[in-house]
């Protein structure tokens, strides 16, 4: 073999090795962001007591993060396309670590809320940069399938892991460690990304920043997320809540109109109007509504009804994590190069719906092994199988210069879906609980019987909301099957550097 051929072979081997090293650091960063979405929930009661946060303001520890993260995601994706994905990724990690340190060291309410908002802002830089780096790094179909399988398992299972880690840290150490634990994650991921990740050349979008689009998208998304948050606490009929929803619709409609007119839009409408990507954003957002609502109900059910400790509650979610790992890294990864994506996504959402159906049987004395365990395992298996092709398709067919904003869109659909799921399903549960207690409390003579009715009312509320979640997953499956029509990726070397080459879209009559 000539020296030139040897050098070429060595460069190819080094590039292959670096891709998988890069995946390690990208996945670590994604795990940190997803963990943070749930880990603080477990620590919130202890933090509230230590910092003297009132009951009325405690929701802002969660809401401040959600508003900043959801509102700035599209802007973060555009920054990644403009500034460079690797640079944006590293900057997001460093900022997230600094904000986490501030939150862990907080001595009052204002510092805590400010730290959470900063975490959300840097998370909005980090999350789309991570997904778009994955899209432009792995272009060969089999490698791409494996990489997105791992990433999908982390994206789906990280929230449940957060419950476990949050319970352990809060119960055995201190709530502050639910913030400090992010720092080693971020430092390792940033250092690894700086030295290992090699971003393909020629993929930046150097067009001028669309300032009106930035302003309208941030205001519209923040208003929408806040409207759902307020609906949960103040009710859907509250005049301020209704006003916020109307305002968000007007702002987002103005954003879409602006994007159709400006020369260099923040969100090129071609990103969301392509049927496959549109189907992914919509079906994935609906699935997240069901999943995040369930996290909330099961956490309360296990701790308040079953009397589980925070650690035991976290461990009870392990079947979900196991199912996600198997569905994403085994089923999804092995089949994505053999069958069209919709034949993974639609059945995956339906299997998740069957798992959710198991959980509609919850009662006060429900057996964990007989109902909750199989329900969570099936839910995880289905979600993992669907998440893997969904995340891969979220950047399907986009030009490399648009991969950051396309990645931001899938994160936006998940973030808004999480806010909707928590507010919508919690409202349904609360209404059903109130109605049940009102109808049954009169027949409860003793204090013990009244407490029993209240517990039964809570469980009745949870199961009512879970029924809605079952329907939402069926709808997600229907959308995935009807919207997504791309064929299976062709096996073999990718034909180009961009994410647009990895799948060929057949013409299918419908």
Automatic annotation (TrEMBL):
Gene3D superfamilies assigned: MFS general substrate transporter like domains (1.20.1250.20), Multidrug resistance protein D (1.20.1720.10)
CDD domains referenced in this protein's UniProt entry, alphabetically: MFS_MMR_MDR_like (cd17321)
GO molecular function, one term: transmembrane transporter activity
Residues in Major facilitator superfamily (MFS) profile domain copies: 22-488
Topology with respect to the bilayer: Multi-pass membrane protein
Listed GO biological process terms: response to antibiotic
Name assigned to this protein: MFS transporter
């Amino acid at each position: 073999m000539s020296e030139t051929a040897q050098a070429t072979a060595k460069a190819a081997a080094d590039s292959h090795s670096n891709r998988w090293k890069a995946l390690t650091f990208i996945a670590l960063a994604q795990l940190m962001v997803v963990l943070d979405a749930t880990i603080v929930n477990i620590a919130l009661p202890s933090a509230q007591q230590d910092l003297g946060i009132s009951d009325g303001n405690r929701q802002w520890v969660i809401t401040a993060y959600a508003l900043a993260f959801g509102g700035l995601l599209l802007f973060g994706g555009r920054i990644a396309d403009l500034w460079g994905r690797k640079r944006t990724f590293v900057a997001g990690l460093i900022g997230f670590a600094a904000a986490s340190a501030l939150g862990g060291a907080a001595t009052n309410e204002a510092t805590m809320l400010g730290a959470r908002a900063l975490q959300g802002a840097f998370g909005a830089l980090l999350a789309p940069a991570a997904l778009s780096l994955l899209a432009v790094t792995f272009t060969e179909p089999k490698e791409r399938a494996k990489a997105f399988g791992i990433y999908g398992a982390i994206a789906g299972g990280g929230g449940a892991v957060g419950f476990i880690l949050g319970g352990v840290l809060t119960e055995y150490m201190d709530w502050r460690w639910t913030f400090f634990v992010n720092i080693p994650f971020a430092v390792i991921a940033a250092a690894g990304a700086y030295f290992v990740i090699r971003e393909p050349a020629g993929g930046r979008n150097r067009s001028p920043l669309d300032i009106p689009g930035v302003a309208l998208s941030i205001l519209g998304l923040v208003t929408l997320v806040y409207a759902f948050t307020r609906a949960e606490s103040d009710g859907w009929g509250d005049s301020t809540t209704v006003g916020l929803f109307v305002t968000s619709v007007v702002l987002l409609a103005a954003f879409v109109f602006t994007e159709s007119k400006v020369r260099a839009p923040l969100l090129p409408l071609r990103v969301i109007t392509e049927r496959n990507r549109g189907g992914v954003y919509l079906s994935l957002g609906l699935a997240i509504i069901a999943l995040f609502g369930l996290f909330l109900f099961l956490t309360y059910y296990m701790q308040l009804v079953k009397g589980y400790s925070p650690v035991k509650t976290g461990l009870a979610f392990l079947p979900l994590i196991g199912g996600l790992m198997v569905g994403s890294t085994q089923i999804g990864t092995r089949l994505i190069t053999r069958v069209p994506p919709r034949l993974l996504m639609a059945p995956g959402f339906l299997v998740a719906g069957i798992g959710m159906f198991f959980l509609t049987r919850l009662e006060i004395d429900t057996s964990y092994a007989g109902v909750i365990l199989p329900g969570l395992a099936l839910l995880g298996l289905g979600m993992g199988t669907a998440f893997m092709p969904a995340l891969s398709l979220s950047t399907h067919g986009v030009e490399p210069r648009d991969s950051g904003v396309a990645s931001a869109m899938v994160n936006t659909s998940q973030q808004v879906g999480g806010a909707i799921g928590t507010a919508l399903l919690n409202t349904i549960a609360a209404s059903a609980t109130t109605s049940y207690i009102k109808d049954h409390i009169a027949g409860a003579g003793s204090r013990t019987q009244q407490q029993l009715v209240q517990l039964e009312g809570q469980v009745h509320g949870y199961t009512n909301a879970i029924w809605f979640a079952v329907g939402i997953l069926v709808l997600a499956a229907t959308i995935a099957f009807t919207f997504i029509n791309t064929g299976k990726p062709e096996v073999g070397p990718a034909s180009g550097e961009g994410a647009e080459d990895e799948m060929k879209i057949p013409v299918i009559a419908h």
